[in-house]
Design a protein that fits this description.
The chain is an alpha+beta fold. It has 10 helices and 16 strands. Keywords: Endonuclease, Hydrolase, Nuclease.
Length: 352
């Protein structure tokens, strides 16, 4: 099963709302006064687009617990072990000196350097881990001194200082040195969300086993499994063996349950129409799954999909083939109440 979140939609709508308010203030129009100084955020606060991921996942886990006897949860709490990367010589934990250490480092570097050579920006080629300041000249194994280099650049650079190797390309030199100290902001947001999800999971009373992205990749390589989201989830945490994986998956896409706003705005942020207060029209609500059988007229046929209600009683139905407009409510039959999710089955990408 794969959950498709709508964090991007939430982020874009919040950005649009902020833009509307900013324009009204700058143009000296009627606006709500800013309230930046009189609001506080509780401990552990997450942005709405990130909190949605936690809430959506917990909602789906609650449903799965009602449908199946779940005895334990395995969660990938971090993409990589940051403490291990910053202190590669730390002792006391067995896997830090084993094969898993290399997977943690590679996962971090691939994400940080965007799967490209730091010196020539080549992508889609084999990449080696390179020391920015060579170890033979006093460079360390800290993650801030590591980068990715294609085979050609790695061999040409050798043990030269980076200032000598990139002497004729000062812009590339400045970029590499700056990126070496740049943290992974996106990875930090993902890690924060995963920690919040872990805390929420521990509150369910189920045993929660944690792992890292490096361990997931290591498990997948041990079982010779292909790469995909669902198969990665199958390899999270402690794993003995995997005998097989599904060829079809259930995809649940978060669609939301509507909006609190009762108006629609124009391009300048001013209201252009008002929405009704009641969400149910003739027993149907937007998002319900319906089947409409129309026997006559231009829209004759059977239409199956999610409905968008109108107070006039003439509904729109979005089917797998497109949007069908103007279907009267008497032709509709309810199949499933809208629960904020849209379900479909997909072929496993690794099996296509």
């Amino acid at each position: 099963m794969e959950i498709m979140h709508r964090g991007g939609v939430i982020r874009d709508r919040l950005a649009a709302r902020a833009g509307y308010r900013r324009r009204r203030r700058s143009k000296n129009l009627r606006y709500r006064k800013p309230r930046f100084d009189n609001r506080t955020r509780p401990a552990g606060w997450l942005g709405p687009s990130l909190q949605h991921r936690v809430d959506g996942t917990m909602s789906m886990i609650g449903r799965l617990r009602r449908w199946a006897p779940i005895t334990a949860v395995h969660v990938e709490r971090v993409a990589f072990d940051a403490h291990l990367l910053q202190n590669p010589d730390v002792s006391g934990i067995g896997y830090q000196h084993g094969t898993l250490h290399g997977y943690e480092t590679r996962e971090y570097l691939l994400g940080k350097w965007r799967h490209r050579c730091a010196y020539c920006s080549a992508s889609g080629v084999p990449l080696n881990i390179d020391h920015i300041h060579p170890r033979s000249r006093g460079g360390s194994d800290r993650i801030s001194n590591l980068t990715l280099a294609c085979i050609a650049c790695n061999q040409i650079k050798g043990n030269q200082p980076i200032e000598v190797f990139l002497a004729e390309r000062p812009k590339v030199l400045a970029t590499v040195l700056a990126d070496a100290k740049r943290p992974l902001h996106n990875a930090a947001a993902v890690s924060t969300t995963r920690w919040a999800l872990w805390r929420a999971l521990t509150g369910t009373g189920l045993p929660v086993h944690v792992g890292s992205g490096g361990r997931t990749k290591w498990n997948r390589h041990r079982t010779a499994a292909p790469k995909s989201h669902t198969i990665d989830a199958l390899h999270v945490g402690r794993l003995g063996t995997v005998t097989g994986w599904p060829h079809r998956i259930l995809a649940a896409a978060a669609t939301g349950r509507g909006a609190y706003s009762r108006t629609r705005t124009d391009r300048y942020g001013f209201p252009r129409l008002r929405l009704p207060r009641t969400k149910h029209v003739h027993g149907y609500a937007t998002g319900d799954l319906v089947r409409a059988v129309v026997s006559t007229g231009l829209k004759r046929g059977t239409h199956l999909g999610r409905v968008a209600v109108r107070t006039t009683g003439s509904f729109n139905i979005r089917t797998r083939y497109g949007l069908v407009q103007g279907i009267h409510h008497r032709h509709c039959r309810l199949l499933q109440r809208g629960d904020g999710w849209a379900y479909t089955t997909l072929l496993e990408t690794s099996c296509v």
